[in-house]
Write a structure and sequence with these properties.
The complex is a heterodimer of chains A (200) and B (383). By secondary structure, chain A is of the alpha/beta class. Helices cover 44% and strands 18% of the residues of chain A. Chain A has a seven-stranded parallel beta sheet with strand order 3-2-1-4-5-6-7, sandwiched between helices. In chain A, strand 6, helix 6 and strand 7 form a beta-alpha-beta unit. The model of chain A has no long low-confidence stretch (mean pLDDT 96). The mean pLDDT of chain B is 96. Chain B is globular and about 65 Å long. Chain B contains 15 helices and 14 strands. Chain B is an alpha/beta fold and 383 residues long. Chain B folds into two domains: 198 residues, Rossmann fold; 178 residues, Glycogen Phosphorylase B (Rossmann fold, 3-Layer(aba) Sandwich). The chains are: A alpha/beta (200), B alpha/beta (383).
Amino acid sequence: MNIVLLSKQFSDGDAISEYIKTIAENLVDRGHEVRIVSFDDGSYYSIDERVDVLRAPMDFDGDNLYNWSMMMNNELKGQVMQNIGDDVDLIHANDWTTVPGGVALSKQLEKPFVLTVHSTENVRGFEGEYAEMISELEWQGVYEADQILTTDEDTKNSVLFDLGAPDEKVQKVDPYEGSWPETVLNKYQELVKQGKKVKN
Amino acid sequence: MRPLFITWEYPPYKAGGIAAHCEDLATTMASQGHEPVVITYGDERTSEVRDGVQIHRVPASNSATNTLSWSMHLGHEMEKKAIELHKANNFDLVHAHDWMAVPGATGIKKTLNLPMVFTVHSTQKGRDGISSNYQKTIHDLEWYGTYEAEEVITVGREFSEEVKHTYDVPEQKVNYIPNGVDLERFDSHSENLNRNEYALDWEQIVLFVGRMYPQKGPGHLIEAMPHILDQQPEAKFVMCGSGATEHYKSIANSKVGNKVHFPGYVSDNELMSLMKEATMTVAPSVYEPFGIVPLEAAASETMTVGSYTGGMKDTIVHEYTGLHTYPADSGSITDQVSRGLEDPGWSDWMGDNARERVEDNFRWEQISAWTTGIYNQAVEQRS
């Protein structure tokens, strides 16, 4: 399989980075190809050298995280289309910050789209000027995803009840349980076999 | 060619000049055998073909608290539509209009791997500055658009220089293509003006058309009004446009009473009749990258008194198609408007010259051909 993992950042110590790093290393151990695509914040990262890491620079600061993320996703799409192209079996985005990229790439390449929701705006308190728009993106990601993963029960409930995801599309995979990467890999295999399900 | 236009407004949705520009350009391209497709904003998802142009509308978020994030979200929706359309029939390139189209157009460029052309109609710096973080972010988006585009089009000659300097764009990437005017629209419209609503029989209409904001300079004209009337009592000022109308109306009324008229909303047809009827239009803009008013007036065989700034340096030829004033100078406006009113034969002559000049230089057929020439350059660079 050729898997693309999208993340807002990729650096040591960051929870989402460690999450995708574990998935990526398990994949290469089993002979699969993995590309991690993230914004290049210049920070340090370490990973098995068989994993391709594409970090995109961006000359746009934005006035808040929402606007910044929307433009950053354009850079992620550029990295994927220029360096990987059609050679992808599945796109896996993480949280709302990579939803626009994940959705667009999965539509363009017609490949399954997995979204891990690490937390939701509802769980975080729905505060600030952009909460509503962020929540809309989360809803869209959940709506467009072929498979939603959550890392804990609270988030799973929020995805089900706040974002209205159908029960059968959501699975909690706790990254503190020993064999969790294998669960994710099996899910990938199942999805790649089925091909893109959700079409809108 | 099959260009994809990305614009936040397309008629009947219309706030500024971009909508009319895109419609005229796309319609002309279609008549010349190209296949322009427009993706733009709409309250709901619709698709139609009008005058040979495919128009697709996508809705934007209702939760946006400002225009920036609104356009970010709209851009994402536009991109999804573009992906769908591109699968059925490939685009040759994406053409963005002003900063609100930049998020969508750059996303489309990257996902569909298309060349990009970016038309800059005005700059944030020129509109109202870049002092706040919000304004700075818009400025940065404009920069980003010029950076990502293979070719940049600007609508004014002097404005080209401004764009080059403001965003540090390489010389050879910036192209000047003026706006055009649809002469047929002015020639074929049915004149149905009730002149009495605007002026008395013996009065001469001095017309202002534009949004009532400081950038367009209505205040300078209002300041000049009593002085013009001292010299030319037959002048009657008609101020058309949206914006801070009430503000300017109360100032103007206190200065010249019923010698100024603010008609409020005026239909396109009525406006064209007014332009034909007016002795002159006045464009007292302080900042004007292009300025369509002098060309529309010219199409109506009416001269324009306009500031010597930006696009009007080119669209008005002093003492031939109109008269130039110093920008933001009510004394200069007084002098030139009075000169025009003083000699009706001369102002008619200038109106006729203006018409002849737009016929020769500002036709959409010509502008469309220049634009597709730029498209070819952009496509070649990517191949």
